[in-house]
Amino acid sequence: MTELLSLAGVHTHIGRYHILQGVDFSVAEGQTTMLLGRNGAGKTSTLRTIMGLWQASAGRISLHGYVPESMAVFSDLTVKENLVLAARDGPLDDARLEWIFGFFPALKRFWLSRAGALSGGQKQMLSIARAIVEPRKLLLIDEPTKGLAPAIVVALIECFAEVKRRGATILLVEQNFFAARELGDSVLVMDNGKIVHRGEMAALASDVALQERLLGLSLETHQ
To answer: Which residues contact 175 (CB under 8 A, 6 or more apart)?
Structure first.
């Protein structure tokens, strides 16, 4: 499979702290790759380094057709205005909007409301909608289900699965292992700033002993 994104020997220092310590991995085009690990393992730091928010101190990051996309929302703007800004290639596409509303109907209800007035879950929906309002080649997503109600998590899973079917490649950091199991084609596990495991998500999901060794818990006990 074609590699859309690859990291080779990537190190990142923040002040005196050595955060990433020789990170090596690749993300296959058209796949959803899960990036898992305990808290503080370096997952978010990896995404920030790929996007250039943090400067790598050594190593190489290779990106094929990558378009950085912030998932932040503008609180003083309406839902509509947030999506208009995210649609950089032209006017909003009505058919794509209706597709997004199918996953996140609350965005249609609050179309002209200020983003700052939305609930936490609704803001997360808007963040995802901003990222997918136009077709993207590569999406880097950091814990999208964090703090969300189960029904919204199910909607997010369905949304990301459909985004992948439409041709996107996804690198997804996630602590909800139900979502990881449902979405992941392959998996990378980080510990102490390094990749310590790589393989098929289905294989990790079926191996409780490996889950406990790599993550300190099993998927069944952390949904």
So the answer is: 143, 145, 146, 222
pTM listed for this prediction: 0.88
Name the DSSP letter for residue 9: E
User: In this structure, how many other beta carbons lie within 10 angstroms of the beta carbon of residue 16?
Assistant: 5
Place of tokens 């392959």: 186
pLDDT digit string, tens, across residues 89-131: 888 999 999 999 999 999 999 999 999 999 988 999 999 999 9
CA distances 89 to 6, 64, 137, Å, are: 27, 19, 14
Q: What angle do CA 160, 44, 15 make, to 5 degrees?
A: 160
Report which secondary-structure segment, H or E, holds 18.
Answer: strand 17-28
Written as six digits, the tokens of 45 are 């730091």
Report the distance separating Cα 89 and Cα 207, nearest Å.
44
d(CA 129, CA 122): 10
Q: For the purposes of burial, counting CB atoms within 10 Å of the CB of 43, is it exposed (0-12), middle (13-18) or buried (19 or more)? A: buried
DSSP element (H, E) containing 170: strand 169-173
Tokens of 60: 């190489």
Cα–Cα separations (whole angstroms), residue 35 to 22, 113, 118, 151, 201: 16, 34, 29, 23, 10
